Structures are given as structure tokens and as C-alpha cells.
Amino acid sequence: MTGDLIERAGAGDEQAFRQLVEPYRRELQALCYRFLGSVHDAEDTVQETLLTAWRSLGTFERRATLRTWLYRIATSRCLNALRSASRHPAMNGPVYRFDPPEPTRLAEVPWLEPYPDLLLEDLPDGAPGPHARYEAKEAISLAFITALQILPPRQRAVLILRDVLGFSTSEVAGMVQSSEQSVASALKRARAALAHHTATEHQRPAPPADSPAERRLVAAFVRAFEAGDVDAVVALLTDDAWLTMPPSQLEYQGRELAARFLTVAFRARPPYHPRLIPTRANGQPAFGMYVRDPHADVLHASGLVVLTLAGQQISMITRFDNSTLSRFGLPRTLPS
Questions:
Q1: Is residue 286 classed as helix, strand or coil in its secondary structure?
Q2: Residue among 83, 80, 79 nearest 172 (CA)
Q3: pTM over 0.85
Q4: What is the DSSP string of 91-106?
Q5: Closest CA relative to residue 140, chosen from 279, 281, 306
Q6: Cα–Cα dist 46/42, whole Å
Q7: Does the bond joining 212 to the residue before it have cis omega, within 30 degrees of 0?
Q8: I want to staple 41 with a disulfide (CB 3.0 to 4.6 A). Which of 36, 37, 145, 243 is the partner?
Q9: To which H or E segment does residue 156 belong?
Q10: d(CA 107, CA 153)
Q11: How many CB atoms lie within 10 A of CB 174?
Q12: Cα four-point dihedral sign 294, 327, 197, 210
């Protein structure tokens, strides 16, 4: 059937081409997201990938699988995007209604966007190959995606293709148009850099998704956050927990700084009492956040909050702005 579709698509049958590539669209998007850290950029790059595949289908010699061929094109498009000097123009962070405290550091990846779990549901169970070193959940987490963005483009490519997706060294060499020796060298450097970046961020494993342990911790967070109870929120955090807010570059580490930030944030809009609407992002619990309009019976969206869990505590709270809500099916307003 695939051979017949390739023949028809090569002869100009657009319907055959769509039928041929559609099973790979979601995994190509996940690939591009890991490269770029942005769902918007990933979607654009997948479109470029499929357009390139349509135009060059006549060059597909079937020496590799169609999936491998598509991954090679997507990898090339991602590397081109990473080399583009204009990909990340100067980003303006949010305008706060208060004076935020001095941060621990400024974020290196302010363009980071959350990835809806709904987009992960259609990925084939057997997508990772035999050489994969990371579990699927770990390889899509916000912490891992952030760490990938720190790597140089070529190192990022070989680590994603080899350790996340499990392609062989020879397959990766073909995808990045390099020698196996060069791939092995780049992979060694990428693994060392990733280990260094995450060395101080090693955490206890998160409880399984939707497990009683996860539900208890998430429920405690929702109660504390919706009540505007800073002490109760902070009590749920690990000692070295991070509070981050892309596209703002401000990042806060530790309970003391988290308490300072949350205190001024909650007091800036009294009575605060936000409402959290549950969803999931990057394999992690997430919430659309809404605040009451003081002049009308309506709640206005105030971003998306994603929790990174470590054992029975929260190791990171990441808040994104309203631009991410539509991908999660969340509205801009809710009835009060």
C-alpha cells in the first residue's frame, strides 16, 4: 500500500501524498518542538518539511524508510531555523503591576512554549528506537526541553535523534549529512553538556500521571493558590524550587525568593483569588489561570501554569502568558 501511495504521490496525486505523510505529522511536530522549544516554530517547520517532501518526492530512492527520510528533511529544516539570526527577535517580557524582586538569574530560553499533552496522544508507542536513552515522558518535560535549547545546533540534533528517538549512529549520520565518527564525537559532547546543565537540578522522580500521589499534591497546590495563601504554596516547594515565567527572563530559585515574588504578585490585584482550570502540558500537570474582573461577572485569562513535580513536592512552577491558551482549548474569559 505504501509503495502504491508513493507512486501516486510522485505522479502528482496530492491526496495520496497527504495519506502517505499524515501518520507522521504528530511525531514530526514533537521532533521539531524538541529542536526549537516553540510550538509555533515547530508547526511552521513541519509545514516546511512536508512542502519540501512533496517537491522532492521524486528523489526518494527508498534506501531508507519513508519515516527516516521525513526525519532527515525535518532535521535539516530545524537546523536551518536554528541558524537563522532573526529567529528570536528581542522579546518583551510582561509589564508587571508591581515591582518584582531581584531575580536569581535571567532565563536563557525566553521563547520556551508549553506542549499540549493532547498532541502526544497520537504518537506511535514504538516511535523510540532501540538506542533511545530517555523515557518518552522525560524527553518532553519542560526541564529537558530547556536543557536541549542550551546545546549547539549540531549537538542538539544528534542527541535528539540518537538518545531520544533511538536512531542508530549510521542513520543519524545520514540525517545530518556527516560521518559516523563526527556524530559520535558530537553526541559525546552533547551528553556531557546536558549532564553538566542538569547536574544541580537532579530531582526525585515525579509521581505517575493521574496517580493518587499526583492528585493529592496537585489538589493541595490548587487549594493554596486559589486562596492566595503564599505560605501554603511555598510549603509545597522543594528547597531549590524554581519559579519561571517565559517570555519574561526573570527566574527565582528557592522558597524565600518564591515567597517574595508570590507575595507581591498576590497583593497587586486584591482580592486575588484566581481560578485554576486543569489541563496537561509536557506530560506535567498544568492549569489555565483566570482572575476576576472587579467590574463585571467574568473571569479573564491570566496565563498558563505548569507544575514540575519531584516526589511529593513541586520543583518548578512555570507560568506562560495568554498566547499559549488556544492550543489547550482554553478560552480568554469564563463566567464568574
A1: strand
A2: 79
A3: yes
A4: PP----SS-PPPPSEE
A5: 281
A6: 6
A7: no
A8: 36
A9: helix 153-159
A10: 19
A11: 19
A12: positive
What per-residue confidence (pLDDT) applies to 254? 97
Euclidean distance between CA atoms 234 and 322, whole angstroms: 24
Only one residue has cell 503591576, namely 97
Q: What does the block give as the cell for 90?
A: 528581542
Beta carbons within 10 angstroms of residue 123's beta carbon: 15
Percentage of the chain lying above the pLDDT 90 cut: 75
Q: How confident is the model at residue 136 (pLDDT cuts 50, 70, 90)?
A: confident
173 touches 205 (CB < 8 A): no
CA distance 119 to 140: 11
| Rounded (5°) CA angle 112-158-170 | 155
Q: Give the HSE-up count for residue 214: Cα atoms under 13 Å, Cβ half-sphere.
A: 16
Average pLDDT of the residues in 149-157: 96
Tens-digit pLDDT profile for residues 178-220: 999 999 999 999 999 998 877 554 468 899 999 999 999 999 9
Locus of grid cell 516554530: 41
Contact 154, 122 (CB under 8 A): no
Asked whether the CA dihedral 102, 106, 202, 38 is positive or negative, the reply is positive
Q: What pLDDT is recorded for position 124?
A: 67
